[in-house]
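Structure in, sequence out. Go:
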């Protein structure tokens, strides 16, 4: 005879945790996850299936067949994109209704990535860099080559510092900084106050943060101080770590985050604490980063964005794998992270998104995040729609192997109650996994949680009979059959339904006795 029935409520919190043993995680972090694919740690709590993406412009960026979109830059009320077109690498601009070429002179050589920065030194403009041609300034109507006296011929990276443009990453000296004349975004003549500074390490990215310019190098990180060509000086932040790719550097949560040579780190924590070990932010998912060789990828295989409205940092990969098998990570900044994370970020993984490049910014009082496709010529808008441009989104959340406080006692399971938030049609499978999925005992079949037509969708409901955008919070009660020492629960599916959130779940069980 079993003991009386008990309940164990589990709050979905802590994100993906892969650096704990099963017993500790199942006992001390029951709301964390061992699989969290295409679920994001939500602002409201719990785990929410991610939004999809849709075409930013229904026209492709003009270019060669199967050529990647080599770069995207959000700015000037639209998006600039770069793509190879015959013998030229064209820069084109769109506000969502067709791509207009903006470079007057052909851009040649071999371009592997285009990057851009915003400038307001001489009016609103973007400065575009491709590592094979002179930097180009575009103000929405006119393009200007930055190729005067002292200007680098082919910079890859740029930043704005003290009302000057700083360029780096050029072929003649990949370890040197070029700083423009005061209050100029095109002049680099030393006679007018421009400067060049040797860096002693190969530069892979620049970022201005809190009025300081940080120089990310292959094996070190430096900062630039001073205000004039006579007192500019480079100082070491650390000589113990470097940055894998400048395309992973983002500002979020009052720090700079980036993919270092071993894992994702926080520069703010590094400089504030004075010990680089305290700059780690991804130890919970280090097995995933290592297993997918993130730190050995090249510039063309890495891109990142921040989704500011969600306090999110995302890294995408573009490898030889198909889009369905491409992976990424999503981290949500939490000033008060769970005891398990306790580092400011909780994590999940991404699958099915394979961009060549990415960018995000605020435009016209709205946040816009875009990615460029590696072959088909489209630029896509993230956080848009319920599919990957028509392809269903696959998602999966698996809890730890729960011990119910004692892994030595056998339990009998009666019911699971799942607390959700839904925005529309909802159909998710849930299954009970006994004793870590061992094949020695029968594993129960999954059950489908379903609520069709939960909330009318604009464009498909009947006018004056429906309420649009209304969230619902149904609780799904599912009977369970099974007995084991540990139990895990997995929610999964593949669909084009609106996002849903798994907020918490509660298991009704009874203790049977010791082994």
């Amino acid at each position: 005879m079993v003991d009386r029935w008990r309940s164990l409520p589990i709050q979905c919190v802590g994100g993906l945790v892969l650096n704990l043993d099963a017993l500790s995680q199942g006992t001390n972090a029951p709301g964390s996850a061992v699989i969290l694919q295409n679920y994001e740690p939500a602002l409201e709590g719990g785990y929410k299936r991610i939004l999809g993406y849709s075409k930013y412009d229904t026209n492709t960026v003009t270019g060669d067949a199967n050529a990647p979109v080599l770069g995207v830059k959000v700015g000037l009320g639209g998006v600039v994109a770069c793509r190879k077109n015959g013998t030229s690498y064209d820069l084109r601009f769109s506000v969502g209704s067709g791509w207009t070429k903006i470079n007057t002179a052909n851009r040649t050589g071999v371009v592997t990535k285009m990057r851009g920065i915003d400038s307001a030194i001489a009016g609103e403009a973007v400065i575009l860099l491709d590592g094979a041609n002179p930097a180009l300034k575009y103000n929405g109507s006119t393009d200007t080559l930055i190729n005067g006296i002292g200007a680098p011929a082919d910079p890859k990276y740029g930043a704005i510092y003290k009302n000057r443009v700083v360029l780096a990453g050029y072929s003649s000296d990949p370890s040197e900084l070029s700083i423009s004349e005061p209050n100029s975004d095109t002049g680099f003549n030393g006679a007018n106050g421009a400067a060049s500074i040797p860096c002693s390490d190969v530069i892979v990215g620049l970022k201005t943060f809190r009025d300081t310019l940080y120089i990310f190098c292959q094996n070190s990180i430096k900062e630039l101080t001073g205000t004039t060509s006579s007192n500019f000086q480079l100082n070491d932040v650390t000589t113990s770590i470097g940055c894998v790719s400048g395309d992973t550097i983002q500002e979020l949560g009052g720090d700079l985050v980036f993919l270092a040579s071993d894992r994702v780190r926080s520069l703010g924590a590094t400089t504030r604490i004075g010990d680089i070990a305290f700059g780690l932010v991804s130890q919970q998912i280090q097995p995933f980063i290592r297993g997918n060789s993130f730190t050995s990828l090249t510039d063309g295989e890495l891109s990142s964005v921040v989704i500011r409205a969600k306090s999110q940092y995302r890294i995408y990969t573009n490898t030889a794998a198909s889009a369905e098998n491409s992976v990424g990570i999503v981290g949500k900044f939490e000033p008060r992270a769970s005891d398990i994370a306790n580092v400011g970020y909780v994590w999940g993984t991404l699958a099915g998104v394979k961009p060549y490049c990415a960018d995000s910014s605020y435009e016209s009082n709205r946040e816009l995040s875009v990615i460029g496709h590696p072959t088909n010529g489209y630029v896509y808008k993230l956080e848009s729609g319920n599919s990957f441009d028509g392809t269903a989104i696959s998602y999966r959340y698996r809890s730890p192997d729960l011990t119910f406080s004692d892994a030595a006692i056998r339990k009998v399971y009666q019911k699971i109650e799942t607390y959700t938030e839904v925005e529309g049609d909802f159909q998710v499978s849930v299954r009970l996994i006994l004793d870590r999925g061992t094949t020695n005992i029968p594993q129960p079949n999954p059950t489908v949680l379903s609520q069709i037509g939960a909330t009318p969708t604009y464009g498909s409901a009947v006018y004056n009979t429906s309420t649009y955008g209304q969230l619902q919070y149904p609780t799904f009660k599912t009977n369970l059959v099974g007995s084991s020492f540990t139990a895990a629960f997995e929610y999964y599916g593949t669909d084009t339904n609106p996002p849903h959130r798994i907020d918490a779940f509660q298991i009704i069980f009874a203790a049977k006795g010791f082994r």
